[in-house]
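Table S2 (continued). Query chain:
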Amino acid sequence: MKQVHVEPTQQVWKDPRAIALLMAATLTVMANATISPALAGLEEMFKDDPNVLWLSRLLVSTPSLTVIICAPLAGVIADRYGRRALLLVGVLLFAVMGSAGLFLPDLTSMLVSRLGLGVAVAMVMTAQTALIGDYFVGDQRSSLMGLQTSARNFGGFLFISMAGVLAVSSPRLPFAIYGLALLMVPFLWRYISEPARHTGGARKTANTEDDGAAAWALLLGALAVLQMLTNMIFFLMPTQLPFFLDAQGYDSASMTGAALGALMLSGGTAALLYGRIKARVGYSGAFTLAYGFMAVGLMLLTLQRTWSVFLGTAAMGAGYALAMPNFPAMALQVAPSSRRGMAGGVLTSSVFLGQFLSVFVSIPLIAAVGFAGTFQIVATALMCMALVGLLVFIWRSFRKATTAFVRLEN
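Corresponding output:
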């Protein structure tokens, strides 16, 4: 397997390994949302099925359930047997299970294939996160985390747009988009090599890195909980925005598509800047900006104006894009190298668990206080989270300044 050496000063996006991992990152957004434009057509195609209303809607969310369950197991496999094979098998399984809807005869069999798709997503996301930790360090790793979020946003925008065009001809055609994953396999095969610690006898000494396991496990757990909460809040956009806009008298279908497009584009752009922002203000500063943007975005939505909808969703997208790279970057920093697969698996589960729980938390809250009240409550919580981040940033800046002053005096 060809090894690629990149000087520390070289920009990370020039590394073919980074390009390969960014290509794999686009698959995660493709997993759930790509077939959304086809749901109405599938409902019409299988209208004789007595459970068509439930089954057609579950096609989107079902992969999340198997991701939640399988991602930690995929992490254990990645740590014990290696990342490369897990990634390659996951991409192949993704293409097969994702495109199966092209020919499967009914919604029930499609639902089963979507469960398999979730297994593939768990494998790809877990292996990809671990490999980023294995290949890159410091600013390169932080920059790649931002580029990963950007790739997911721009990839999601592209794939959903393609699905919308294809769904006009047939509701089955959007499933063909999953087959694009096969085009990535040769590139992944060539440039993704197994890290040295997972070859030969290196596995025998992997357990020596478990010293202080309780400390890093607690930090990983805290990151997973915060990431879950962040995703619960962010998922208000795709799940509740259509109903909010409908209640305001907008054409919810066209307005939602345009608003979510603004969200993805702003998120993709903000993520490109993450590496520079993190280098200047650190993790605490990035969290402060992220939750501040998200809070402002929700408050703008409560103004119930067309311009405020677009600005609000754009702010939500930018904030989310600045928050998400922090979690894997911090987790890879604290986790032992022999446990990066497990760290990636836990974080992957927390993302999809937050998405899954979002609906069950938001619907009762909206029923109690309405959309505007819900957005205000959540915005207040986000401002508190931003304030905590700001206090940590000030404290760390003060410590750094004090230390520099003491050294100067000595």
